[in-house]
Amino acid sequence: MTGNPVLFIELHGLFRWLYEKLLATGLSQTWVDIITYTALGLVIFALLALVALFLVWWERKISAHVQQRFGPMRHGWHGWYQTIMDAIKLLQKEDILVDTRDRLVFFWAPVICFVAAFSVYVVMPWGKGLIVADLNIGILYIMAVTTFAVISLLMAGWGSNNKYALLGGMRSAAQMVSYEVPLVASVLVVVIFVGSLSMVDIVKAQSGLVFNWYIFRLPFGPIAFLTYITAATAEANRTPFDIPEAEQELVAGYNVEYSGMKFAMFFLAEFVNLFTVSAIAVTLFLGGWNGWGFIPSWLWFLGKTLVIVLLLMLFRWTYPRLRVDQLMEFAWKFLVPVTFTNLVVAGVFRYLGWYW
Amino acid sequence: MTKDELKDYVSSHFDGKLTPLDTGRYDPMFQVKSEDLMEVARALKADENLQFDYLCNLAGVDTKEHFEAVYSIASISNNLRLDFKVILPYDKAEIESVQEVWPGINWYEREIWELYGINVLNHGNLKRFLLPDDWDQGHPMRKDWDAPDFERMPEF
Amino acid sequence: MAELRTEEFVVNMGPQHPSTHGVARLMLTMDGEKIVKIEPVIGYLHRAIEKVCENRTYAQCIPIMDRFEYVTAMSCSYAFSLAAEKLAGIEVPERAEYLRVIMLELNRIASHLIFYGVTAMDIGAVTPFLYGLRERELIVDLFEMTCGQRLTYSYNRIGGVSRDIPKEFIPKTREAIKIIGAKLSDYEGLLNKNPIWLARTKGIGVLSKETAIAYGVSGPVLRASGVQYDTRRNDPYSIYDRFDFDIPVRYHGDCYDRYLLRLDEIRQSIRIITQALDGLPEGEIRAKVLPNFKPPPGEVYSRIENSRGEMGIYMLSDGSKKPLRVKARGSSYNHFEALPEFGTDMLIADIVATFATLDIIVPEIDR
Amino acid sequence: MGIIRKVPHYAEKIPGGGIITTALETVLHQAQAKSLWYLLFGTACCAIELMCTGASRYDFDRLGMIYRATPRQSDLIIVAGTITKKMAPRLRRLYDQMAEPRYVIAMGGCTISGGPFYYDSYAVEKGIDHIIPVDIYIPGCPPRPESLLEGCIHLQEKIKKQKLSDWQEK
């Protein structure tokens, strides 16, 4: 095998070696592309399913330890295969179709939510060279795709023919739309400094010393990071912004009527969104896969993302929930002005060259 | 003012409408005729050194001979407590609603109507709320009430 | 612009809802998120406790009365035995009075800890629910040590208490109230100055003094609206006049004050318990009461202050061994009745917060 | 019914299908037993004990049981507390709304036979097994959290011993 062992730890060497094997079989270029992209899609899907299952278990364990209880213990060491059991059980549940006129809306809502959550990972750089397709409009593509979730929540809210779901759906639309604006504004601050939308360029711009990470690019980085994290918790529907499925008020918000696999899709999509949001935070502000020492680059990326996921999980188990109008007020009256001034000042400083 | 002073003051003042009874074991107990209940209630609340503005409880009672509606009231400012009852014969079990004196009595009156059948005049919404909506076995708290599946505790 | 034709729709915060503490039901007529009309519906837990008590002897009524309000079960059986003692004029020995006060105050702390947990959970913070119940387990161990049950204790008897406390009760109680006193600062640190908590509770669900008194609201809800009225002080019973404790009162009458007031009350209860433990005399724990206890004919309305407000028992006896009429008055009955008065033109999230801070419990309403 | 539940009928027809069904049976029932999501339903005193069992000292989550707010997503309903005549039709509707492999635990004396309110009460249902089919009865008034946990473990044993064929007539 060509290439030194370190490359294999880097994994992208492995993929390139497989790609050369595939080319050697002499298929035409279009077939080779089709096979590679389906294979990469399957790998990403399997990887994300694993990550989502892990995150569900991890959230139950973290919430248990925050609340001084044990969390799943009986099924495997510390209940490691608890979420697998949940998944298999959800497979067996009766598939309840609500008697609503727009049955298609009810049926397709979880599918769109699922697809929207997974399609973000086309441009996500897992490590050096480990990216499905390095589009030059990387971050723009992500922002576009994440807004699909709004449609799916609205469809779920309307299709369930249930007053609580309708309220949940309306709330989620209002919340996601109004938090999209500060999210994009804080992302643009980084794009100004990088000069390109492609995710790989963003990570490359942060290589080298730790101080090249955009979180340390005073004074814009920290502000942008904080506003990004706040807006991201709202995008991922997590407390203190989880009003769409606020258990105490709306019973279960938009997924009131969903049971079995439909509910599993929403549940998995929610945790994949959580992972997406923290992965973007890592790529933009914490220097993606850059890291020192012999640890492979994809391990750096996973480690940093899990730290951000831990942060978001701790949010959920400490903060109470905001009310709908306070949430809107916070977005439009506080976040949007802050992010826009930060953006404009960053642009002026970038133009005048006063940054280090 | 102590309990005895309160007893003398009340029995002397409201021109004899509240006749004291001796069945009260702790707080002074009076009896009021049902027709001047409304006037007594207003007077008790308006009287400046009594000011019974707080309603503790309204209990419907079925003493096998007649109904009774026992009002327990208190005064927040003067720390006083007083009970008075209205005796209602079985055939004419009607009582005036004293909602405009103590608004909190709305549900209590509704309850004695539902469980005892004591009719409360100009009450507003005398609707069923404690028993199931399709309840058709009369007023269950009466002593003479019975139902097919209603089992009494055997004497041992 | 054409007049937007909006239509109000009725939402059932129905008998089965995560934040209605059991089976209370609110029919909310809502215009979008804003609540236009509230129509409470009760009766889903009407177990006819009063009819059951009419066919039981006085001693048999005590376990039934415990189920009347099971979060502070100690205060219900106490209110019943107090009423019976007033009827028959029984003199309760000193030690029994002290034991009763200790148990009542411990039960008040346990109930306020449940309040703290459930209110925080209803406003979105799930973790304080677990912390509140963790501290409550300390107190439940103490009850289990003396009465053998975790929730419905049947500890009081007419004329005194049923069992004496074991040896290790006093040191364990001191340790428990020391831990709870220390943990209170954690609770306050977690929520009191949290901006989201302030935004969700300050100025929400304001209950004015006049409506509170008019609707017979009592207990911490009344004291949070600025009326310093506590049955332990204003209509003293048992030996509460021997202990010095103050009655916390706040003046805004909103959810935040009702929440703060209950934490202050936990501190006052701790003060009472320490004084009661220091002054606990020796002696027997029950007055001589014949097994078939027949009080002389008469009626009484005795009322005590439990954690939710004023709990009163109207008892009428005709000299036989069974009470002729027992009417149990719970404070949640008036709170739930007053809710439509100050609960309209609010958002659904506020009605959940207000409902939680009123600390309404369904058996007190439905009996 | 879930797609996966049609598989056993076809598997039995092909030769050697029995092994597949027994293997499938154990996997399906193990999964059902190990992740029972219970509905947040409590009417009276047993609800407080249910809360304490869910809290930190006797944790339900150890058995993989988390509470769900809607009947659609829960497959176990722990009827905790007295069911009155007015609440009975609501309980029946809640049970009907739950998705199919569903189980019922009757917790407390009131749900078994009316408990302390059996005599002299005109409004209490005497036990709930004529309203919904009950799997596990837990006596006690209220039962201790340990006995509730033991009831849940018994339910898990019962689910594991189930046969695929007897799903149909439930």
Your description of this structure?
- The complex is a heterotetramer of chains A (356), B (156), C (367) and D (170).
- By secondary structure, chain A is mainly α.
- Chain A is 68% helix and 0% strand.
- Chain A has 14 helices and no strands.
- In chain A, helix 3 crosses helix 12, helix 5 packs antiparallel against helix 7 and helix 10 runs antiparallel to helix 12.
- The longest helix of chain A is centred in the N-terminal third of the chain and has 38 residues.
- Chain B has 156 residues and is α/β, with parallel strands linked by helices.
- Chain B has a domain of 88 residues: Beta Polymerase, domain 2 (2-Layer Sandwich).
- Chain B is globular and about 50 Å long.
- Chain C is α+β, with helices and mostly antiparallel strands and 367 residues long.
- Chain C has one domain: Cytochrome-c3 Hydrogenase, chain B.
- Chain C has a 3-stranded antiparallel sheet with strand order 1-2-3. In chain C, strands 6-7-8 form a 3-stranded antiparallel sheet. In chain C, strands 4-5 form a two-stranded antiparallel sheet.
- Chains A and D meet through helix 4 of A and helix 2 of D.
List the helices and strands and how they pair.
The complex is a heterotetramer of chains A (about 350), B (about 160), C (about 375) and D (about 170).
Chain A: H1 5-10, H2 12-24, H3 29-66, H4 82-92, H5 103-119, H6 138-146, H7 148-159, H8 163-194, H9 199-205, H10 220-235, H11 247-250, H12 261-285, H13 297-318, H14 324-352
Chain B: H1 3-13, E1 19-21, E2 29-32, H2 37-46, E3 54-62, E4 67-75, E5 80-88, E6 94-96, H3 106-116, E7 119-121
Parallel strand pairs in B: 2-5, 6-7
Antiparallel strand pairs in B: 1-2, 3-4, 4-5
Chain D: H1 7-13, H2 17-34, E1 38-39, H3 45-54, E2 67-68, E3 76-80, H4 88-97, E4 103-107, H5 109-113, E5 136-138, H6 145-160
Parallel strand pairs in D: 1-2, 1-3, 3-4, 4-5
